[in-house]
Amino acid sequence: HTFRKHQILSSSPRYILFIHLVINDMSQLALSTLLHVISYTLYSISVPFCLILLIITVLTTLNTPLNLAGMAVECYIAICIPLRHSLICTVKKTYILIGLIWAVSALSILPDLFILLATEPLHFFHSRVFCARDYIFRSAYSLKKREASHIVCLVLVWLILFYTYFRILFAAKGATADFKKARNTIVLHGFQLLLCMLTYVRPMFEQGLLYLLPKQHLSIHFACYVIVQILPRFVSPIVYGLRDQTFRRYVRRFLLCKVSTSSHPENVTKPNITSSMRQQ
Which residues form the G-protein coupled receptors family 1 profile domain (predicted)? Predict the structure, then answer.
């Protein structure tokens, strides 16, 4: 509501990416929570329904690190190339970037779907399974492809992270007096991206724990879900929302109902000039 109501937020690439991140994470949390509830209550569901939930969940999960990388680049341009920021970071280019984020995430999961359709027999799609990625996309090709794509994304996002934030760190140190605040912001950004990167190593980490504790499958699955999926998404509102002075000011106005008509010129009633002239 705050984002749509104020043009200063809806016309800023930084806030557009932030709102996309929030909506994406809300969708991911809702779907992943639904999958976990199903795994603990129903245990198994039909394959087509599971496929729909899994594909959307994987898409939104992979979107988060890519979105954060895009926000890192935008922050780098704003601090290190401020004179060209308005030319490089436009609203149109921001929406194109969001489309590219979804396209890259789709390229990671759609090949698994095609491999599944080509390798699994027809009766598999009429059966009920435990709805987890390893139980659906169980082909050796899918596992190798997933590991390769995760490694590529891991390397690319970390390269973007190190390059942009070290440049921001040096630029903030030399150009601003409040270096401590800039440094803390960079540390929080890096911490959040570090948590999101666990998405790429989760399969290997979970398999290692299952090898050591084979009887604790559900406990390991739930612990990995909390650490990898929930924890990073609690950091986003703090880093990009509440710590941002502009966004915090508008949210505070909305929550405290202090938005007066004087602060919104469009709500001010224009004087009736015609009637005044007639009275004279």
Answer: 1-240
